Amino acid sequence: MQELANIFIKSIFIDNMIFAYFLGMCSYLAVSKTVKTSVGMGFAVIFVLGFTIPINYLLENFILKQGALVWLSESFVDVDLSFLSFIMFIAIIASMVQLVEMIVEKFSPALYGSLGIFLPLIAVNCAILGGSLFMQERAYTSITEATIFGLGSGIGWFLAIVAIAAIREKIRYSHVPAPLRGLGITFIITGLMGIAFMSFMGIKL
Amino acid sequence: MSDKKEALFSKKNRKLLIDPLNDNNPVTTQVLGICSALAITVQLKPAIVMAISVLVVMSVANVVVSLMRNLIPSRIRIIVQLVVIAALVILVDQVLKAFVYDVSKELSVFVGLIITNCIIMGRLEAFALGNRPWKSFLDGLGNAFGYGWILIAVAFFRELLGAGTLFGYPVLEKMGLYEMGYENNGMMILPPMALITVGIIIWIQRMKNRDLIES
Q: Is residue B184 in some structural domain?
């Protein structure tokens, strides 16, 4: 249990997708103009990360990894399909996003109304593929750990985008030097927020 | 078929190649492909390897998609593009693992993330789907160079100011700066400074070219 809590806290604060790895920066910069849209985008990312990482975990451990196919037949012990992982992961992500979109549309039109336009964007959000690749690299030992890691990373991303959106809403009334306006100042603020988030690195888990 | 007669390096084609280097830079103006531009710029060597990988993937993907542009049904085009890119990235990844293993380890997940690098998707969507292969090739090349030079510039400053080296060679030590009391700025190696460095590049670029300023 403690192990799970560690992974959760670590993936939200210390290994924050945006501030430590810059994943999903494109949508982070594009969708963070108002708090409302960024909340929608953030929830969509939590949702999709929470779904795709466990699925890719199963894929990795029962199909792709060396010796993962043993459950089919003993003779597959030496088969190593991990070079296929990029293409498999991205296929899973793209189809999952499509599936999630359809399910949400059917069962919760209200949620679809607020997430709807963001879901297709997510298929090419590097945070999603990045999450799966980190899951592969860090070799989590159980599917629960992988799911917790997915949810934690999503929440970390959510926090980051909502925070920057709130700052950008306020900064519109400030006197920023003209060449820095818009993109430039957003970069610098994100950098400063990153420095603040680095203080979490001291936490011993 | 009028553009068949067009010279290989006509003015229009040269514009495709030159524009993304500055005025229409994918990183600083189109805001695409930021993720990888920031994460792997601690040192020059991985940055250059990354720039070359993106160059290869982008120009080949642009040509392939441009060749298939009349065959792809528009409803499934995103999946088709992803498959083309992913196949190329797997190739690049295997080559890197075979020939420069240490750099490949250092880049870790970021080679795989070329797949979702929005520059590549963006150029395929915006350009390769509607243009002939040669033009798409030039467009891919130009944008990859535009991306590459930002990457290399950021990595240059971060490595020089953060570690005092270039390609691992201790430049500042040889210049004798340390004896004069100079110290490395350890902050430059940490992730947040990458963002601030790019912010400053954007600042300088927009000061020179006032048309780019956002209102």
A: yes
* Cα separation values, B155 from A22, A142, B108, B112, Å: 15, 37, 17, 20
The total of structural domains in chain B comes to 1
Tell whether B76 lies on the interface with A, counting CB pairs under 8 A: no
pLDDT tens, residue by residue, A189-199: 988 988 888 88
Residues 137-156 of A with CB under 8 A from B: 137
C-alpha torsion sign, points A57, A59, A63, A65: negative
Burial call B38-71: b when 16+ CB within 10 Å, e when fewer: bbbbbbbbbbbbbbebbbbbbbbbbbbbbeebee
- Let me know how long chain A is: 205
Residue B149 is part of which domain span?
Answer: 32-212
What is the rounded CA–CA span in Å between residue B169 and residue A94? 43
> Does residue B24 lie in a domain region?
no
Any idea of the CA torsion for A133, B149, B165, B37, to the nearest 10 degrees? -20
The sign of the torsion formed by the CA atoms of A24, A25, A30, A36 equals positive
Residue B203 lies in a domain: yes
Q: Which of residues 13-42 of B touch A (CB under 8 A)?
A: 28, 31-36, 38-39
| Full-model pTM | 0.82
Q: What is the ipTM of this complex?
A: 0.78
Residue B159 falls within a domain, yes or no? yes
